[in-house]
Amino acid sequence: SKTQFLAAASHDILQPLNAARLFAASLVERTRRTEESDLARNVDASLEAVEDILSALLDISRLDAGAMKPDVAPFRIDEMLQALALEFTPAAARKNLRLKVMPCGLTVETDRKLLRRVLQNLVANAIKYTRQGEVLMGCRRRGSKLRIEVHDTGPGIPADKRDVIFQEFQRLHGDDEQTGLGLGLSIVERIARVLNHKITVRSTAGRGSMFAVDMPMGSSKVPAASQAAPASEPAAAPLKDMVLLCIDNEPAILDGMRMLLSGWGCQVITAASLTEAFDSLKPAADAPFKKPDIIIADYHLDRGTGIEAVVALRWKLGQNIPAVLLTADRSPGVRDEAGGKQIHVMNKPLKPAALRSFLAQTRASLSSN
Predict the structure, then answer these.
(1) Phi and psi (nearest 5°) for 196?
(2) pTM value surpassing 0.90
(3) Is pLDDT above 90 for 160?
(4) What percent of the chain shows pLDDT beyond 70?
(5) What pLDDT is attached to residue 3?
(6) 208: which of 80, 153, 232, 233 fits an S-S bond (Cβ 3.0–4.6 Å)?
């Protein structure tokens, strides 16, 4: 019943949350140097916490239903470790913790996205429950397996509770600093089961814990990713005067997108349907269509899908227009269909920082061409 309910209700639940996060993100930016800045940040942080819990419930639903199928391929683990270090260093710094990630040039053979989710949850938990000291992530080679370990200097886990922590809604250290419902390790356990990866826990009360995941090593070497430019550079690129076409059948989401994107200096054209989009791009009967720099479309529209809308717009305006599909549907079918049409997918509730990074990277790419 839980699985069926979450699958059916996820879109309706995530739509208003997506609109709220857009308004909150815009409010944070507009009140950055005012007395209301702390209030705006608190609202945004609270909505982000709701989003994290909802995403965890949806992931558990999909895992229990067998809807997550691993896509196994070889890749260098160092690429993932470096990305996690960038992602979690600010969170550790806010608690005056040291996050240390040891480099590793070996190749593993597993599902990249599912493994990243496991490691994200392990590192996030380590930072959450550690009051002082450090969090360390590193690798050990064990025969044909590679073990990734996450160590912390937190309160530790009693021996009789080490099985309980992998159950839903279990939080051993329920002090006033912690948020969430205790779903992170439940997701770790389920994903490890899907991937057939062993999870190991060692802990000493009062001295810290170690969580480890074992996975097969890759049989072939994978070349390192190009380091030509730091990933952070495109995010800083200016977005002023970019023309963005946003299509969504929810007026609140269109208002939120207009407020957020215009605050970044973009020119925003909004439409509730493909027909409205064409009307907005051609204000006069004899005028040429105005070509947007990027199309941002919701997947579920009143008539057809966002993918179909992007295809129709590209047929009229040019096949090279970059496009983003926003969707609460996390099924592989939607992602594969969009990927086949060269449409970038972002899940709802939308993370404004991720969208801004994509827009900046796209603008940098368009400028270089």
Answers:
(1) 60, 40
(2) no
(3) no
(4) 78
(5) 61
(6) 153
